[in-house]
Amino acid sequence: MLNNIMIGQYFPGDSFLHRMDARVKICLLLVLLIEVFVFTSAPVYIGMSVVTLLLIMISHVPVRMVLRSLKPLWWIILFTFVLHLFSHPGRELCRVWQFVITQEGLEQGALISVRLMLLIILSTLLTFTTSPLKLTDALESLLSPFKRLGLPAHELAMMMTIALRFIPTLISETDKIMKAQQSRGADFVTGSILSRLKNMVPILVPLFLSAFRRADDLALAMEARCYRGGEGRTRMKEMKLARLDYVAIAIFSLVSVGLGVSYTL
C-alpha cells in the first residue's frame, strides 16, 4: 500500500512537459487549480478531464503510475461522494433505508469527486515531470520578489523541496520497517483501533531515528560542500524561457478561455 504513494516522485523523460520551464509549469498549475474551484459545472469538468488526459499522454508518464497516485486517497474520494449523495436536498431518485438519494446529490457528489481527482493528478504530474533541483530553482525564482519583505526565498524553497524529495524515501523506509516487524510477528491489520495504534509504536520509533539520521547526514554533506544559503550562489544553467514555454502559455490561455466560455453558457 505504501508503495502506491507517488507524491514527490520524479519520472525522468524528454517530453514536452519535461522540457518546459519549471516556473511556467508551477504558475500554469496554480491557475489551473484555481479554475478547477471557480468553474464548477459538468461541461467544464469534462473539458478539464480531457485536458488532464492529454497532459498525461504528452508527459509519457505511464497511466498506471498516475492512477497509483489516486489509490491511497480513494477512501476520501468515496467518502466525499457518499456524503454529498445522501445529504444534498433535491428531487428524490430512490431511498436506501432512511437515506434519500437525490439527483442533485448524485450530480454534486460526482462533480466534487472529479474535482478531487483532478487536483491530485495535476499536482502529481508536476512532480513527475520536474526534477527536485529544477523545482527548487523555480520556487526560489518565483519567491525572490518577496525578499524585499524579508522572506528567505532560497531557504524556504530549499526546505519545501527537501521535504518533497524525502517523502518517497521515508515511505520506502516505513515499508521496510513494517515488513521487518511483521516478520517478527507484529500485526498491523487485525484487532481494535487501540491495539493497532500500540502496534505502530515499533514503527514510529525507528522511523524517527532514521529521519533524524538522514537529516544529520544531509546537513553534514551540505556543510562539506561549503553550503551557506543562497547569498552569492550561482547556477551552472540559468533558467530562461524558451519558445516552448511561450507556446505552452498560448495554448493554456486558449484552453482557459474555452473553459470560461463553457462555464458561462
Automatic annotation (TrEMBL):
<dbReference type="GO" id="GO:0005886">
    <property type="term" value="C:plasma membrane"/>
</dbReference>
<protein>
    <submittedName>
        <fullName>Energy-coupling factor transport system permease protein</fullName>
    </submittedName>
</protein>
<keyword id="KW-1003">Cell membrane</keyword>
<keyword id="KW-0472">Membrane</keyword>
<feature type="transmembrane region" description="Helical">
    <location>
        <begin position="27"/>
        <end position="60"/>
    </location>
</feature>
<dbReference type="InterPro" id="IPR003339">
    <property type="entry name" value="ABC/ECF_trnsptr_transmembrane"/>
</dbReference>
<feature type="transmembrane region" description="Helical">
    <location>
        <begin position="109"/>
        <end position="129"/>
    </location>
</feature>
<feature type="transmembrane region" description="Helical">
    <location>
        <begin position="244"/>
        <end position="263"/>
    </location>
</feature>
<keyword id="KW-1133">Transmembrane helix</keyword>
<feature type="transmembrane region" description="Helical">
    <location>
        <begin position="72"/>
        <end position="88"/>
    </location>
</feature>
<dbReference type="Pfam" id="PF02361">
    <property type="entry name" value="CbiQ"/>
</dbReference>
<dbReference type="InterPro" id="IPR051611">
    <property type="entry name" value="ECF_transporter_component"/>
</dbReference>
<keyword id="KW-0812">Transmembrane</keyword>
<feature type="transmembrane region" description="Helical">
    <location>
        <begin position="149"/>
        <end position="171"/>
    </location>
</feature>
